[in-house]
Design brief:
Blueprint lengths: L1 H22 L6 H33 L5 H32 L14 E4 L5 E4 L3 E3 L5 E3 L3 E4 L14 H5 L14 E5 L4 E5 L8 H5 L19 H10 L5 E4 L14 E4 L5 E4 L2 E2 L12 E4 L14 H5 L5
Parallel strand pairs: 1-11
Antiparallel strand pairs: 1-2, 2-5, 3-4, 6-7, 7-8, 9-10, 10-12
Helix pairs in contact: 1-2, 2-3
Amino acid sequence: MILRGMFILIPAMMIVGASGMAMGAKRTDALAVGKKRRMPIIALNGLLILLPSAIFLASKAQAGAFDAIFYSVQGIELLAGAVNLSLMGVNIRDGLRMTGRIGGKGATVVSTPVIEQRDNGPLVLKGVDSISSADAQEIACRPATALCRCGASKNKPFCDGSHNDAGFQSACGDVSSRDKVFTYKGEEATIHHNRLLCSHAGECSKRLPSVFDPKRKPWIEPGNGTISDLEAVVQACPSGALRLSTGVDQPQHLVGDGAVVAVEKDGPYRVANIALEGVSWATGASNKKYVLCRCGQSGNKPFCDGSHHDAGWRDS
């Protein structure tokens, strides 16, 4: 029965191995590289040790020759089988990590919400129970949830592996020339704006057009609004591009309470009070409030720079 089972097991393993190599061909992150290195070992172990051992043991068993050689070969087979099962188990674990279904080493339980970046892959959200969809519905999350950032997933906002076929690159371009803060002074308050951080959400011009008018120069006139009006707009700005200062106070971002990930319709992820790993922050940026690219076209990855707006990107 073991020998007969080999003629099902080996082709099945070949199909799984070949499809896995094809799906991860463009991935260069550590998890994918580790899986690719183990797969040839599993294949060679099966073809050079397990299959010959099974054929030999079957012939010995049919002859009733249960001698020392039989048990020695069976011991080798059991050892080789244990090695393959261990390697396949590690590959399954790393596959689940790559899709965000489980966390990495030491991250089974996450008490503090965090967002991790996968090289040329998704954003992995940990320690958050739910996110808000584009239609304001709450979507339950796993302990580790992979969010699409290549713009190509057919299961948005979640990753379905489409970044591999799309050849998505997560590297950030040179944005130093755009990383500038412009200051607009009023009699009672000053607005500070970094255009690199702006995601073109339009919250400012919709809420307070008397102060924020992109068709006007200068486009921000703090004196046309009250302090409370300006505070409301700065707090509503999802990207942290706007800051407010009064008198000699330092410019401030205004951020609400609670960990939040909200999916903007045809736009980025709006994030508040969640740590983001492995990034360099622009001048005046807030690590408490920011927006993350969802279309895959930003020049300031992982942050949104409004490219979805310019390209007319849609998430449907």
